[in-house]
Amino acid sequence: MILNLRVDHKIADIQSMENISKDIDELFWELQEKYSINEYVEISTCNRKEYYVHSDYICEDEELLSHDNQSIIIEYDQSAIMHLLRMTSGLESMIVGEDQILGQVKDSKNKSVKNHHCGKVLDTVFTKAIHVGQVVRNKTNINKGSVSIGSAAIDLAEKHMGCLDDKSVLVIGAGKMGRLVAKALAEKDLNAIFVANRTYYVAVELAEDLGGEAILFNDLEKYLAEADLVISATSAPHTIIDKKRLLGIDMAHEDLMMVDIANPRDISEDVMEIGVKLFNIDDLREIADENTQLRINEFGEAENIINEEYLLLKESFKIMEVDSILANLRMSMEEIRQRETQKASVKLADVDGSVKILDNLTNSIVNKIFFDISKKVKNAAKQEDQDVLAAIEYIFDSD
Question: What amino acid positions are annotated as catalytic residues?
Answer without folding.
Answer: 46
